[in-house]
Amino acid sequence: MTPNTDITSLEDIKLLVNSFYSKVQEDALIGPIFNEKIMGRWPEHLEKMYRFWQTILLEEHTYTGSPFPPHKQLPVNTQHFDRWMALFTETVDHLFTGKLADDAKLRAQNMAQMFNYKIEYFRNAGRN
């Protein structure tokens, strides 16, 4: 598929989220971590991700909550976030092109860096 349109609708968000998390579930590095954490609740997780990205990218406020706490105790590090980001970027670039597609990648990168930093912070604080 050649990128030809930007992210403009909830249907685009669903395509992005479903495509991305299909790759995540199969990935040798991060798949086992996600699959163990979510434990068969993928439809529920995907619905939450639709609302999250719909709120972030389309400014249609359907997501409520705090995205960090469920990730706080994950056994992940920079390598895992780099892989997550590579899969996300690959998925966006395969499906979309445009301002919101670029914004999705930037926001994902910022989130990955922040989550990685916070996880490391809490992990190190627990050692003291």
From TrEMBL:
<dbReference type="GO" id="GO:0019825">
    <property type="term" value="F:oxygen binding"/>
</dbReference>
<keyword id="KW-0813">Transport</keyword>
<dbReference type="GO" id="GO:0020037">
    <property type="term" value="F:heme binding"/>
</dbReference>
<dbReference type="GO" id="GO:0046872">
    <property type="term" value="F:metal ion binding"/>
</dbReference>
<dbReference type="InterPro" id="IPR012292">
    <property type="entry name" value="Globin/Proto"/>
</dbReference>
<dbReference type="InterPro" id="IPR009050">
    <property type="entry name" value="Globin-like_sf"/>
</dbReference>
<keyword id="KW-0349">Heme</keyword>
<protein>
    <submittedName>
        <fullName>Group III truncated hemoglobin</fullName>
    </submittedName>
</protein>
<feature type="binding site" description="distal binding residue">
    <location>
        <position position="45"/>
    </location>
    <ligand>
        <name>heme</name>
    </ligand>
</feature>
<dbReference type="Pfam" id="PF01152">
    <property type="entry name" value="Bac_globin"/>
</dbReference>
<keyword id="KW-0408">Iron</keyword>
<dbReference type="InterPro" id="IPR001486">
    <property type="entry name" value="Hemoglobin_trunc"/>
</dbReference>
<keyword id="KW-0479">Metal-binding</keyword>
